[in-house]
Amino acid sequence: MTQSLTEQTTEIANVLREELARLLECRPEQVDLGLRLTELPGVDSMRLVQTVVACEKHWNIVLDEDELVEVRTGEDLRDLIAHTVATASASA
Length: 92
Hints:
By secondary structure, the protein is mainly α. It has four helices and no strands. It is 62% helix and 0% strand. The protein starts with a helix and ends with a helix.
């Protein structure tokens, strides 16, 4: 059974929130995906790279670097992951 786009986006947001919380040493509910990633407390470039790598491994995808540099918020990253997962699924 395949997930609806809404279910998939919700799952991606939850995993992204959990991964950021793990790296930032806080609770997932404290991670606001609407904030700019650089505004999250305790974030640095290494933690952001670790988050991207963890997400790529989780969904077995590679995020496009040109699109990745345009990401500003957690929601942007969530949407990029969702788009990449959908594209990978469609071509499989």
